[in-house]
Amino acid sequence: MKKLLMLIPACGLFAMISCSPKKQPELTNQDVSKVVGHMTSVMIHDVTNPPLAARFFAYTCLAGYEVVAENDKQTHSMRGVLNQYPDIKHPKQNTGYNYQLSAVLAMFETSARLLPSGTLMLGYESSFIDSCKNIGFSSEVIDSSKSYAKTISKQILAYARADGYRKISNYPRYKLKQTPGSWDLTPPAYMLPVEPYFNTIRPMTLDSAAQFVPDAPIPFSTDKNSAFYKYLQMSYAKSGNALKQEEKDIANFWDCNPFAVQNDGHMLIGLKKISPGAHWMGITAIACKQAKTGFSKTVQINTAVAIGLLDGFICCWEDKYRTNRIRPETAIRRYIDPHWKPLLQTPPFPEYISGHSVVSTTAAVILTHYLGDKFKYTDDVEVNYGIPPRHFNSFKQAAKEAAISRFWGGIHFMDAIDNGIIQGNKVGNLVVAKMSGQRKL
Description:
By secondary structure, the protein is mainly α. 54% of the residues lie in helices and 3% in strands. A two-stranded antiparallel ribbon has the order 1-2. A two-stranded antiparallel sheet has the order 3-4.
């Protein structure tokens, strides 16, 4: 009888264990970072320009973010935070999904629809789903999660379509101003200006593209006693062939020029480099992995950085095409040395202000907010592209190096760099303030 009594509780315990819900597998910060990494690969293939790359990152991350916001109490919807942001409708009737899985799939779904070669993202998504099956996700959970993801992605894509980017193709072709101090096409490819109307699209946190207008650039002048001519002489004397090896290494490390080409006889061959925004999204992946941030926080940090990059490019492009300033390469060749060449190839858009200075500082401010001002890390983002890693003691140190690299590369004057840093700080602090709970409903 005693044996029977002892057996009954044991059987009851077994029944409780066998009937308890099966624990779902968990995804990690690396699953989020891999989607961003795949996007970077596709955008290298497409030669996506820097501002547009930031736009793709921002909307893709938003899709994942909104899934997390509905399912994690520590994360709030962007409704009331971002400009004209819709009231995202979540499929309440959908059950049996895994929100982490849905978030990643929403990112895949959104990027596949945004990128010109987005079908390549579907191949990456298929491999990801296979890996999910291998770690224990059932087909039912995967299907429910994908259905949820598509519902969110559809609404984020509608938000993207309304930002005004599609109207840009209807604008008149940009005409060079042909004045002495104005920007002109530069060798070796003499490419047409990139995204001259990008400032017209809807920003996410800025009240307008002109919210943080920087000080005016030093006025153009060929007077050898003028401030501009002194800037010109400074660029001529301290960049190009005058560089130390360390300065060359730093300039090449932060080049991030998707338009870089090299001469091969009578042909120009693209070098396939990542954009500056992709570099900072890569730094974000490194930082999240090192800090061991949870899934939801990783999505939040990636989204904040991507939003900052987009708004940084919008206000930077407002200044570039408003000031329409000549590049050092053009000015030095015209007024000092017709044979001078910068270390880096000059990007195909006006000089003032420095985009690297703006977006690098913006990203650094945001990453510092989330991960601290003494976050040491090794940046190996471009190792696969032949660029050796560099170590940094903080994100802001990296941003300052990225900014000065443009002077050493011979593609920016110092006032464009200094004022770009100031603007980047303003954009970064605005994004942090908006995403830290200062909402307007």
